[in-house]
Amino acid sequence: MENTTRNELLNQITDAVRTCGEIILHADRGRSCIDEKAGHANFVTAYDKKVQQELQRRLLEILPEAVFVGEEEDIHASIAKGYAFIVDPIDGTTNFIKDYHMSAISVGLALDGERYMGVVYNPYLDEMFTAVRGQGAFLNGMPIHVSPEPLENGVVLFGTAPYYEELNQKSFELAYDYFKRSLDVRRSGSAALDLCSVAAGRAELFFELRLCPWDFAAGSLIVEEAGGKVTTVEGTRLTLEAPCSLLATNGWNG
Questions:
Q1: Which residue, 106, 139, 211, 240, could crosslink 88 as a Cys pair with Cβ 3.0–4.6 Å?
Q2: What is the pLDDT of residues 241-250, one digit of tens each?
Q3: Which long-range contacts (CB under 8 A, 24 or more apart) does 74-81 make?
Q4: Are 189 and 156 part of one and the same domain?
C-alpha cells in the first residue's frame, strides 16, 4: 500500500474512532445496563455494545474486505489472511462505569495476521495515539518516543489480570518486585492507555499477566513504533490469535 493511500486509510480510521468517542463522552450512566461476563469484575455495558456496533459499521465502510474482531462478540473470525480490525470499543469498562475518565477506544488493523496499524483514543483528554508499521508513532499528529531513562529512574505501569483470579497474587508480587527496582508503580485500568504511556515516555515499563488481542493489538504496535520493545512476560513473541501475557518497555528493561 502506497504512503498516500496508507495515510488516507489511517485518517479515515481516526475520524471514525473520534466520532465514536463522542458516544462515550455523552453517555448516560443511568442507562448503562451493566451486565457481567465470565471472570471477576468483568463487565460489559450497553455503551460497549453501542460503540462496537458503530465502529464495525464505520470501519467496514472504510475497508469492506476486512474481517472485524470485536471484544463484545461470541465468535471471532480468523485473522490469518488479509486485513482484520481487532477492536476494543471501551478499554477500561470499569473506569467508564465509575466515571474515572481513563478509558479508550482501541483499534488495531492486522494484515495477514501481523500488526499493521494502531489507533488508541482517550476521548476525555482528546488524545489520539497512532502508528503504522515502519512509520513511527504519534500523539495528535506529533511524533512520540519512549523514555531514555533506565528502570531505576522510571515508573512502572501494570494490570492486575482481574478476570483471572489465579493470576492476581502473582501480578502483585511482580508489581512489588518492579516497585523495588523503580521510582514507583501505577495502575490505570486500561492496558491500551498504559501501552501508549510507555510509547509517549510517560512511563518506562508496563506488564500484565494475561491480556486479549483487542487489549494490545493497537497499543503494542504504537510502543514498538515509538522505539520500545514488546514481548510476552516470558520473553516470547506476541500473538494475535489468543490471550497472552505482555511486557512493554522502553528498551532498557525486559
A1: 106
A2: 899 999 999 9
A3: 79/110, 79/113, 79/240, 79/241, 80/112, 80/113, 81/112, 81/113
A4: yes
| Under 8 Å between Cβ of 181 and 206 | no
The reply to whether 254 falls in a domain is no
CB 244 within 8 A of CB 211: yes
Query: Are residues 186 and 134 part of one domain?
Result: no
Q: Say which residue the cell 469498562 belongs to.
A: 93
Residue 105 and residue 194 share a domain: no
104 and 138 inside one domain? yes
- Angle (CA) 17 18 22, round 5°: 110
User: pLDDT confidence of 40, banded at 50, 70, 90?
Assistant: very low
94 occurs within a structural domain:
yes
Alpha helices in 26-142 (DSSP H): 46-62, 93-97
Domain boundary, last residue among 77, 107, 142? 142
Instruction: Check: CB of residue 25 under 8 Å from CB of residue 121.
Output: no
The set of residues, in sequence order, having a beta carbon less than 8 Å from that of 80 and lying 6+ positions away, is: 112, 113
Contact 207, 247 (CB under 8 A): yes
Place of cell 471514525: 16
